[in-house]
């Protein structure tokens, strides 16, 4: 077996010239390598005498980077020897257990380094977000605790609260006014719904009288008069419905938008007042205690929070005062116009003055929708 491997190695090392004849290597490098290989094989096989040592010899044989590949050349004997160290390719390592060579690349370490770096960056970012959320929850919990404590103290009469008597009176008046206007809005909607049903009934009754006047020759004139009367009442009723709808829409905007917006600002003001009193009480309690280093640091922090909530409270109090003033002016202007419209329209309708009723709608720039505008056309009917 050793002779076969030596003969195979020697055959691989014999150069062939351009004419097909055997040639010689410069400085007999090939023969010298064959002699070294034979000596190492004889020494190791003789000492062990087993196949396992032969595999170790194969592993400990010449490195591929140190061998040379011999081929025929055109420029002389040295041109056919190509050192394998000049061939670029992936490095390999030999696995003696499975008798195979495994390629080894240098990209694994760089990819592992980049992936570990990116994972560390993502971990740091997520850690920063978690810290921010934890800090926010901590501040919110502390603020909620202080405000709850202040609210309970005020409820049981133990704590003091900041009161603006003039502003509190205006807020109470606004809440009472809103309740009354909501009642007016509810009744106006009920009137609109009932009157709409009456107009629809008058319209159907007029159509029935007109049909009977055509089918009853002996009562044609009587049915005709009543049909014309009902049609006239239906037309005036639709005009009045236009005025009532405009009145309801304006009251709804005043109550559910303008007043509600002011009340939302008032709620924010009351919450700011509660926070201001909570931090004021906290500062007063700390000021009464001992004045050591830790307490002084806490007093400074409490003083800073107190100033922040004081500025917020004063800003919202100013906003509430301004909104209450503008709301009162807007309410007077809107209700003056709407009450005048409602009075003139109702009076003209029940007086039977069709011209005055139409003139009232023109005065307030109210445009009526044509009759049957809400009904689908015959193309849309199923």
Automatic annotation (TrEMBL):
Which PROSITE patterns did the record assign?
AH
User: Where located?
Assistant: Golgi apparatus membrane; Golgi apparatus, trans-Golgi network
One MF term in the entry's GO annotations: protein domain specific binding
Domain AH, which positions?
A: 162-362
**Which Gene3D superfamilies does the record cross-reference, listed alphabetically?**
Arfaptin homology (AH) domain/BAR domain
Tell me the keywords, alphabetical order. Golgi apparatus, Membrane, Phosphoprotein
What name does this protein carry?
Answer: AH domain-containing protein
């Amino acid at each position: 077996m050793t002779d076969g491997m030596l003969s195979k190695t020697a055959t691989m090392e014999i150069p062939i010239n351009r004419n097909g004849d055997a040639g010689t290597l410069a400085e007999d490098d090939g023969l010298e390598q064959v002699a070294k290989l034979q000596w190492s094989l004889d020494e190791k096989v003789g000492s062990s005498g087993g196949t396992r040592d032969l595999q170790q010899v194969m592993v400990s044989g010449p490195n591929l980077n140190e061998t040379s590949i011999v081929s025929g050349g055109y420029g002389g004997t040295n041109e056919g020897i190509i050192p394998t160290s000049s061939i670029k390719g992936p490095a390999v390592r030999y696995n003696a257990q499975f008798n195979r060579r495994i390629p080894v690349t240098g990209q694994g370490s760089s990819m592992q380094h980049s992936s570990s770096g990116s994972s560390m960056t993502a971990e740091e970012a997520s850690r920063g977000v978690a810290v921010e959320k934890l800090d926010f929850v901590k501040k919110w919990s502390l603020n909620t605790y202080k405000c709850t404590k202040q609210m309970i103290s005020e409820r049981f009469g133990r704590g003091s609260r900041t009161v603006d008597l003039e502003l509190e009176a205006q807020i109470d008046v606004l809440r009472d006014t809103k309740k009354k206007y909501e009642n007016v809005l509810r009744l106006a909607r009920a009137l609109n719904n009932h009157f709409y049903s009456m107009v629809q009934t008058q319209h159907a009754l007029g159509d029935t009288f007109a049909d009977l006047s055509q089918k009853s020759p002996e009562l044609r004139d009587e049915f005709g008069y009543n049909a014309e009367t009902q049609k006239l009442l239906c037309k005036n009723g639709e005009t009045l419905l236009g005025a009532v709808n405009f009145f309801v829409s304006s009251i709804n905007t005043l109550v559910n938008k303008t007043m509600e917006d002011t009340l939302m600002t008032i709620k924010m003001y009351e919450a700011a007042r509660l926070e201001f009193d909570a931090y004021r009480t906290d500062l007063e309690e700390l000021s009464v205690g001992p004045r050591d280093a830790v307490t002084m640091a806490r007093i400074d922090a409490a003083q800073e929070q107190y100033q922040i909530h004081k500025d917020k409270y004063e800003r919202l109090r100013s906003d509430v005062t301004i909104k209450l003033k503008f709301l009162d002016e807007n309410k007077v202007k809107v209700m003056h116009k709407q009450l005048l419209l409602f009075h003139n329209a109702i009076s003209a309708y029940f007086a039977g003055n069709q011209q005055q009723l139409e003139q009232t709608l023109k005065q307030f720039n109210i445009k009526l929708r044509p009759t049957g505008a809400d009904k689908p056309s015959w193309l849309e009917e199923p």
